[in-house]
Amino acid sequence: MSEFKMFCYQCSQTSQGKGCINYGVCGKNPTLSRLQDNLIFGLKGISAYLYHAGELGYRDKNLEKFLIETLYTTLTNVNFDNERFIKLALDVGRINIETMKLLKKAHNETYGEPEPVEVFTGTKKGKGIIVTGHSIKVLEEILKQSKDKGINVYTHSELLPAHGYPGLRKYENLIGNLGKAWYDQRKLFSEIPVCIVGSSNCVLIPKEEYKDRFFTTGIVGLPEVKHITGYDFSEVIERAKILPTLPEKNGNTILTTGFSLSSILASKEKIKE
Ligand code: SF4
Questions:
Q1: Dihedral pair phi/psi, residue 37, rounded to 5°
Q2: Of 18, 110, 195, 206, which one is least surrounded by beta carbons within 10 A?
Q3: Which atom in ligand 1 lies closest to the alpha carbon of residue 25?
Q4: Which tens digit of pLDDT belongs to each residue from 212-231?
Q5: First to last CA, the chain
Q6: What is the pLDDT of residue 268?
Q7: Higher pLDDT, 136 or 264
Q8: Burial class of residue 77 in the structure, from the number of CB atoms within 10 Å of its CB (0-12 exposed, 13-18 middle, 19+ buried)
Q9: 125 in Cβ contact with 250 (< 8 Å)
Q10: For a substitution probing ligand 1, which of 18, 75, 76, 79 has the most ligand atoms within 8 Å of its CB?
Q11: What percent of the chain has pLDDT over 90?
């Protein structure tokens, strides 16, 4: 790719049916092509944050309008004005911050502001479900629906921050966090014989050995993996009940999370020392 000045194959006029790599057949120049690529990169993040805020009922029409119009702007033969795209590149940064604020508000108002907490990284004796991805709403539903059914719930890797929310910590079946980097998941999920629920990125195509105990929900989809709709996780819970019991086992470390703005401000004098 590095020898290409650009790469665009978004329309049927694309050069030789393979892609415009020096200049667009339509007249798109390499600078414009890269500005559009960067813009789409920013819109991906905004989409993810807006999606998760929307799961909790928090929406913002202005942010959604920006997302729709800006994505449309990158389509073939809509806008060739580099100056407009430079302005949009600045706007996308600002809108990204606003979207993250909306998501923070959704989480904090629904589950309370995070508080510093130590997180167990081992397993407790019993049946289990691992929740991977970033959806706090999916985690909450699984905790709620499995709490009196002898199922222990573990977050995976990047879902560690969920443990800081008082509204989730109140569930005694929220046990701990398993796994390290997301790309180690194939090894972890093979070794720990419980159900896994994929609630957002980052999921990898699962191995055969755990595909039948992997479930997706919401925006996530994997080939030959059962998809759950409408936040009804009863099928996952029933499956978890008949899978092997995990042993009592300590983790190699204790993790910490929940360092929200309020908790840091409350400790500012100590931090200054
Ligand atoms: S939009 Fe323009 S640059 Fe892109 S593939 Fe079509 S002709 Fe080529």
A1: -60, -45
A2: 18
A3: 7
A4: 999 999 999 999 999 999 99
A5: 51
A6: 85
A7: 136
A8: exposed
A9: no
A10: 76
A11: 92
With cut-offs at 50, 70 and 90, classify the pLDDT of residue 182. confident
Q: Give 271: exposed, middle or buried? Use CB within 10 Å, 0-12, 13-18, 19+.
A: exposed
Does the Cβ of 100 fall within 6 Å of ligand 1?
no
Length of the chain: 273
Two tokens, residue 241: 């009940």
Number of continuous H segments (helices) and E segments (strands) in the chain: 10, 8
Ligand 1: which of 6, 9, 22 to mutate, most ligand atoms within 8 Å of CB? Answer: 9
Which residues, 6+ apart, have CB-to-CB distance to 234 below 8 Å?
145
Is ligand 1 within 6 A of the CB of residue 250?
no
Q: Whose CA is nearest to atom 6 of ligand 1?
A: 11
Q: Are 43 and 99 in contact (CB under 8 A)?
A: no
Torsion of CA 80, 83, 87, 93, to 10 degrees: 70
